[in-house]
Amino acid sequence: MSKKLSRSALAVAIALTAPSAWSAGYQVAEHSASGLGRAFSGEAAVADNASVLARNPAAMTMFEKTSVSGALSFIDPNVDISHEGPSRNQTAKDVAPYAIVPASYMISPVNDKLSVGLGFFTTYGVATDYPDDFNQGSSAGDTSLVSVTINPTIAWKATDQLSVGAGISAVYAHAELNRHKGITATFLGGNASDKTITMEGDTFGFGWNVGALYEHDQHNRWGLGYRSQVTLDFEGDFTDHTGVAAQLPPGTTIKGDLEVVLPATLEASGFNQLDEKWAIHYSVLWTQWSKFKELRATNNQCDSSLVGGGAGICFLKEEHYDDALRWSFGFTHSLNEQWLLRAGFAYDEQAGEATLSIPDTDRYWYSTGATYQYSQDLSFDAGFTYINSQSNTFTEDGETFRGDGNALIYALQANYQF
Question: Residue 88 pairs with which residues in a beta bridge?
């Protein structure tokens, strides 16, 4: 397959995947319906289906048969941003669009000590879309980062109690950004909805992940999963529509280089089967958000000094992020031989200062879900989460904004072993 065709196929695959980043920053946690139902608690240790390879490849040694899982998550956000500047009161409703997030996995044991797997999922993405005539169009507009991770993995059972695993991540990503005149149309001329700059590009990036699983016995286990940072080096099209942003002739399109960091993560999880009916699970997830410092698009022809950039810079937006934690806890109840019920709660710390393009805030997850065992080899999962986002006020470009939002997430999944 040609490089052009292979990229086109991936672009079609991720067209459905424009998540609204309902974890901190622009992180995407929606890897499975079973995980969603427990607020993704215990993800590196539970290992109830093949989706565990996205969080801890070492847990693949727990599977005695080849197992496959496929999931679809439906994200329905409701985010409103109010501009509270003097005489400029304006509210942008539903700035985070609806999204569908697919994922699929396969785990295959080679023998009683070695297993291999392959995952297809997303770990980062964001999409915000403001009205074209929003006052602060130079900072709002629409922003989109979508990505797909292809993750081949291998696991080895080193002892009866300890397993280790590793994988390679190939990440395909597409980024797009549009900004508009907004209130600046009063002195630039034209309409508030006219574009000022446009950027679009795609790229491949590579990383790795490792994990370990310790099984004290069949009822108690703990897992650890680490996923490395991936740096995406986009080379795409940059257009200066007005000639002001980068001091190019109006309407000029040139190639621009843009670097985006997908931060490293470290997750520690536990699973404890209390009796025949009840189990608990818990996780803490650390994300190295401090690596995300800025969005800088460059080309020697650009000069953005007039808008706070500099020579050779087409677009510059500084970010202020710190490392953040996500805490989660849940339980599973075996109702009978066919039905398994679960629930969970998570607290997701705000990763960075809120902006119009990424209106980050603290989030509280309230989750529930179930598994239906249709036959010995076929099961179905469903999960539901309500996310309550803490309202916050933030300042950008000297203007004050207020963000209010929540989200509903639904997920369905099928699992088969053979």
Answer: none
What percentage of the chain carries pLDDT values higher than 70? 93
Residue 66 has pLDDT above 80, yes or no: yes
Name the amino acid, one letter, at 140.
Answer: A
User: Please, are residues 117 and 105 in contact by the beta-carbon 8 Å criterion?
Assistant: yes
DSSP letter for 26, please: T
| Cα 3 to Cα 22: distance, rounded to the nearest angstrom | 32
- In CATH, the architecture of 3-417 is Beta Barrel (2.40)
- Residue 152 has a CB neighbour count (10 Å cut-off) of 15
> What 3-state DSSP class applies to 77?
strand
CB atoms within 10 A of CB 10: 18
Looking at residue 295, its pLDDT comes to 84
pTM value > 0.85: yes
Question: What's the DSSP call for residue 59?
Answer: G
DSSP string, 87-138: T--EEE---S--EEEEEEEEEEESSSSEEEEEEEE-SB-EEEE--TT-TTTT
- Whether residue 132 contacts residue 180, with contact meaning beta carbons closer than 8 Å, is answered with yes
* Single-letter code of the amino acid located at 388: N
Summarize pLDDT for 139-197 with one digit per residue, the tens. 888 888 889 999 999 999 999 999 999 999 999 999 898 999 988 888 888 898 999 99
Neighbouring CB atoms inside 10 A of 251's CB total: 10
Report the distance separating Cα 138 and Cα 150, nearest Å. 35
CB 193 within 8 A of CB 132: yes
